Amino acid sequence: MNLAELFKNLKPYVWPYRTLVIATLTLTLIGSFAAQVNALILQYTVDSVNELVEDGKGLDAGLKILTFISIVLLVKEILNLFITFGQKYFGEKLRIYVSRDLAQAIIEKILTYRMAFYTNQDNQSGKLQTRIDRGIESLTRLVQNFFIDILPLFTNSIVALFLMFNANVYVGLVGLCIIPIYFWITQRQANRLGGWRRNMRNYREQKSQGIIGIIDSITVIKSFNREDIEAKKQLDIQIQLTDNQLQTRKTSFFYDGIKTFIEQIGVVLIIILTAYLVLDGQMTIGAIMFHILLFNNVSAPIRQLHRIYDEMNDAMIYSESFFSIINAEEETETSGNYIPTELKGEFKIENVDFYYPNGLHALKNINMTIQPNKITALVGLSGAGKSTVINLLDKFYLPNNGKIYLDGIDIEEYDTKYLRENIGLVLQKNHIFNGSIEENIRYGNIDATEEEIIDAAKKAYIHDQILLLPEGYQSKALLLSGGQQQRIAIARMFLKNPPIIFLDEPTASLDAIATEQIKNSLDAIKKGRTVIIISHSISQIIDADYTYVMKQGEVVEDGTHDEVYKMNGTYKEIFDAMAKSLNIDKIAKTMDDDDEENF
Ligand SMILES: Nc1ncnc2c1ncn2[C@@H]1O[C@H](COP(=O)(O)OP(=O)(O)OP(=O)(O)O)[C@@H](O)[C@H]1O
After folding, report:
1. What is the distance in A from the centroid of ligand 1 to the CA of 230?
2. Which part of the chain is the ABC transmembrane type-1 domain (predicted)?
């Protein structure tokens, strides 16, 4: 991203604060003129004092001059006080507001993005966070620097250059010559640093992703005693990062040295030239001071050029990824605008093919009909594509081929918000977010009353356990056990009370008693709705009205439980294995013995 594109992208965020910008710019201009007063006064002082000495006049005459100088300098400093304060304050205000707006804008934007954006390898949470944080940080620093540093310094520089030309065209030319040389060197420096800076961004992203990874997987790391391996992985990144940092610093030091050298040559040239003009009688002695101070005003911003360049480069590099996130229109979730008056809940999946963003062919020419008022089970071994079907029905992803219809209308034509409003989803994992139990359940219906929340928790058989917690419904939901969290997710679905329900192994982490209780609750809620259940539990599968059996992304069998069982294929294989794993013979024997004893 070049500077013009950067400013174009940034403009919408700065535009609302244009009054602040104008105020800062006006103060900057006044400040630039005030900054030249010192040079003028110094020249005046040297020349006046020199004249007094030459005329042999005493302190009395000098006192008048000194009083005048002191008053001018004092007034200038008081003025400067207000100018600098106003300029910094307005600049800072601008930075804070722009930073807030950028942060909010990117959050609002990514919330509208489709699921594929989040599951993309490049957008792992740590990486995404570093990209967003760094982007905002460098962009806001750019805004601040532009108004607080760059603009005042460069306006100073231009005004000083103008005064130099006004004094003598050759003096002005020396001042002017140094600028392109400096620019050229700084640009070479920036080009050489560009690659390393990009590397730096990657290493920083990897570093923060690494730390997040460690925290997320700490149980696995500790249980396998893999602390050393994890530390080594981080060390490798740190070593690459520091190598890169050193290279950056080395290059910077080298170019900084050259720039200081050039600047000093400029100072020497100014001294020689002005001394010549003074000796030639074309100027008074005060001009030497005047020119050196003016040259200093010209070179001061240039001396900062590399820092400004660095920051601009940072802003360009980091804003590149920031704006690529915020401007990723192709990631925005699509929505139709069809809203039916009534929802029957019949899904038809026709010849659907689906590839995940990483290219994995997860569904192959799938055909299914999901009947309303019935329970449809999706059965298959791990990785067969069952959850993927649900992902497609929820419009988290769109099929690459084929169509999905709901009540005869293509789901792409449906208003996505309406569709999801009518679907209740209980997932295998990742269903609890940071917040209290109450907040987590309330997510199902933001306007629910306390009684309704408690009622939902009761239906999910979690109410009694919540009451045993020290903070009850206000306890942190993430601290609950896996099975308890699953029941919170079920309570949330009960509260939502949608006509279509997708249950992805809803009882996977539950104990036997909770499974039995939840099963009864689910049986109650299933009535009169469209229900899809994915389960590895025999009891839930047997209860289904219709079953689709999936294998490696394809539907291999479908029918009622009896029909698919009799096909002697995958379903029978899975079902028999499930039954065997339950050790039904022994269970039956234990229960028989128990009955006999009781008898
Ligand atoms: N976000 C993703 N990106 C890439 N591949 C994915 C993604 N999610 C799932 N897959 C892959 O798609 C295939 C189908 O996965 P899916 O989760 O649908 O299986 P499943 O039948 O529900 O399995 P399980 O019973 O273990 O939940 C698997 O090979 C899985 O690795």
Report:
1. 27
2. 22-314
